[in-house]
Amino acid sequence: MHRRWALAFGLVVALGAPFALVAPSGAAPSGPDALRVDLDDILADQRLNGSHAGVVVRDPATDQVLYSRQAADRAIPASNAKLFTSAAALEALGPDYRFRTDVVAGARQQGSALLGDLYLRGTGDPTMLAADYDRFAEQVAASGIREVRGRLLADATWFDDVPLGTGWAWDDEPYYFAAPVSALTVAPNTDFDAGTAIVRVTPTAEGRPAAAQLEPATGVVQIDNRTTTSAAGGQPDVTVRRDHGGSRVVVSGTVPVGSQPFEDFATVPDPAEYAADVFARALAAHGVTIQGTGKGAAPAGARALASRQSMPLRELLVPFLKLSNNGHAEALVKAMGREVRGDGSWPAGLEVLSAKLSGLGVDPKVLRMVDGSGMSTMDNVTPEQLAVLLDNARQRPWFRSWYDSLPVAGAADRMVGGTLRNRMAGTQAANNVHAKTGSMTGVASLSGYVTAADGRQLVFSVVFNDFLANSADDLEDAIAIRLAEYKGAEDQTRGRAQTPQSRTPVDDPATRENESTLECSWVKAC
């Protein structure tokens, strides 16, 4: 932390208010005082009664704290934790870091036969698609191998075998935003939702079961199809749920005749087994036979038959941060542990994360991070430390890539606006605010950058906890809009900032989770 800011922040916290000149009696507040009055008004919303509302706003150019409320108090950050994880990964791994996946063999080849096992070895790449495994199979066949006189073994030993994070809710397990983490996995789409398969439900004839299938095709989960095709003209009403700890996916509900196929996601219990199954099917399609699948570490010195590198980290940041992808965060934590400490585990990765945050001016002693995504309710951070990171990151060589990867308010393009694409449109914050969102039940956070009306760039962090309403996103938006309108010394009190109605997820009563409290990208609503 800059020394001037550290001193100023301590005084602000002690006084419980930002620095500001007191306006003469009867005069309208101006400058930072006007901003304070308006932000106080926003935070007086009755939905925040009895809750934690931590907010800090500062001007990096002057180290001036423009507003502070509970800024040094710890709270659950939700997906604002990804700011810490992404910055630490850029420091530890570098913006050019790539994951690698290989097909290797230790046995010799005799004619068209491989006289031993074939290995699929991963390092955590969350961007591996079924098409990539098909290209691997094509390369194996092109090498002349038609028969593997052994098994296809999945080597996921680059990471440990702990699939779910500490403090993750057991009833989130079936949902794609809580997919298990592995060094070897498959993503069913170009959002790279690794460790999941798409369940596609297609109507048939009225009164008949609908057709349900998995994309990509796999046998690691089994569909229990309880759907019915309903009369034309209605809306699909389908629930997809994997049994806790099991491989059965129950698909129930109705789809109307003539409707487009309904799609939802199911997590898989074992991503490495999933990857091996998808690859085995691709090998068969290319005329390569194997003697079954399993798991095992590839022998040292095994020769590569096929290889693929992921996009560099600076590009992966876009789907990671724009769409708040939890799996990407956890893969990066374990990758940091493996690359720096030789241990691809959460504990090792989080040690590296803490060390890199310290180098960015963040004080790890006042934080608790038990995962990289913010899924855990055991994570505790402060708006103050989020603002420290946002400020100091501006000096790093990777800053532009990081900044451009943050969601942009009101930007319609999904891979620009991300989780903010449906928020703050038509205001001064639109196409201005670059910030990371965070949402879960009783938690809302928004931290990032905004260019004020007088041209200065401000950093801000808002973290709400323990509110009972479904959402407090509009209060975050009101704060960000007010900051976009800020005019410095010439600023005048505006009253409560207004924001257009945001398109937020609607709760589906047929599911156990409350979609209206989650990141919009977690329920594919943005």
UniProtKB/TrEMBL annotation:
<comment type="similarity">
    <text>Belongs to the peptidase S13 family.</text>
</comment>
<dbReference type="GO" id="GO:0006508">
    <property type="term" value="P:proteolysis"/>
</dbReference>
<feature type="signal peptide">
    <location>
        <begin position="1"/>
        <end position="22"/>
    </location>
</feature>
<dbReference type="Pfam" id="PF02113">
    <property type="entry name" value="Peptidase_S13"/>
</dbReference>
<keyword id="KW-0645">Protease</keyword>
<keyword id="KW-0121">Carboxypeptidase</keyword>
<keyword id="KW-0732">Signal</keyword>
<dbReference type="InterPro" id="IPR000667">
    <property type="entry name" value="Peptidase_S13"/>
</dbReference>
<feature type="compositionally biased region" description="Basic and acidic residues">
    <location>
        <begin position="505"/>
        <end position="515"/>
    </location>
</feature>
<dbReference type="GO" id="GO:0009002">
    <property type="term" value="F:serine-type D-Ala-D-Ala carboxypeptidase activity"/>
</dbReference>
<keyword id="KW-0378">Hydrolase</keyword>
<feature type="compositionally biased region" description="Polar residues">
    <location>
        <begin position="495"/>
        <end position="504"/>
    </location>
</feature>
<protein>
    <submittedName>
        <fullName>D-alanyl-D-alanine carboxypeptidase/D-alanyl-D-alanine-endopeptidase (Penicillin-binding protein 4)</fullName>
        <ecNumber>3.4.16.4</ecNumber>
        <ecNumber>3.4.21.-</ecNumber>
    </submittedName>
</protein>
<dbReference type="GO" id="GO:0000270">
    <property type="term" value="P:peptidoglycan metabolic process"/>
</dbReference>
<dbReference type="InterPro" id="IPR012338">
    <property type="entry name" value="Beta-lactam/transpept-like"/>
</dbReference>
<feature type="region of interest" description="Disordered">
    <location>
        <begin position="490"/>
        <end position="515"/>
    </location>
</feature>
